[in-house]
Design goal:
globular, disordered N terminus, mainly alpha
Length: 124
Amino acid sequence: MRKPFLTLLMIAALGATPALAQDGAAPFDGELQRMSEILGALHYLRGICGNNEGNKWRSEMQALVDAETPSGERRARMIAAFNRGYNGFQQTYRSCTPAANTAIRRHVEEGARISRDLTARYAN
């Protein structure tokens, strides 16, 4: 059984963090970029593996951006990470394979771990 993403908890935790300067880096920006990359990878991989989820992972990314409300360079880095995750697997996989399913499982697990860690560190 796959562990569900804790995106809503993470969004609540990030929404509780103090406001940053216009383009100031947050201490969790690295994790946000990795989460963005994971969401991009899942958007592509789950699509080719016939999970009929539509834009679920793109919507998760939009919810993350909406909750964090980054601007300027921070926003661009998050979006670039999503696209990097998507494009990286698009270049590798044209159809669902056992390796693609393994990548999905690993990305879901890593995303859940990042979400839990961020929530534990930055939630009120």
